[in-house]
Design a protein that fits this description.
The chain is mostly helical. Helices cover about 60% and strands about 0% of the residues. The protein has one domain (about 5-150): NusB-like (N-utilizing Substance Protein B Homolog, Chain A, Orthogonal Bundle), CATH 1.10.940.
Length: about 160
């Protein structure tokens, strides 16, 4: 994170981490979410921030909303699979990449969520924090494909 606090971005980073943890530990999203709220969100005095696995600036409401929506959404993985190249099935993706795509697509599918371009830019920023290779390009392509299919009206006019 930069010196300028970005609580919504921090919430999204925490959501990616929590979705990853839920998958890896085979725990419910609700269980992981409660663990994060109790132990990883916020930055108590003397804590080391991100270096100690904390997400100091995260907004709990946005974090919880993303996780709960991801857990309820039955078309999430279907949309991701449809946007991936055929030679890249969902199971072949890195687990962090899967978690990031799930969090991002969850927000794209929220009827009252931020504009799709904002969601895409936010998650591309997050992707650059996790990946140094071609992964951000894949994420951009998948998210653009899904956003244009699910929120076509936002892409109809000039940028």
């Amino acid at each position: 994170m930069t010196a300028r606090a970005r609580p919504r971005t921090a919430s999204r980073v925490a959501a990616v981490q929590a979705l990853f943890q839920a998958e890896q530990r085979e725990q419910s999203v609700e269980t992981v979410m409660q663990e994060f709220i109790r132990h990883r969100l916020g930055d108590p005095p003397g804590a080391g921030g991100f270096a100690e696995g904390r997400v100091p600036e995260a907004e709990v409401d946005l974090f919880a909303r993303i996780l709960r929506a991801a857990a309820r959404n039955e078309v999430l993985d279907h949309d991701i699979v449809d946007a991936l190249p055929p030679e890249w099935p969902l199971a072949r993706l890195d687990a962090v990449l899967r978690a990031l795509l799930r969090a991002a697509v969850t927000e794209i599918l929220m009827a009252d969520g931020p504009p799709a371009r904002v969601v895409i830019n936010e998650y591309l920023d997050i992707a650059h924090g996790f990946f140094s290779g071609d992964e951000p390009g894949l994420i951009n392509g998948v998210l653009n494909h899904i956003a244009r299919a699910r929120r076509a009206a936002e892409f109809a006019g000039p940028y």
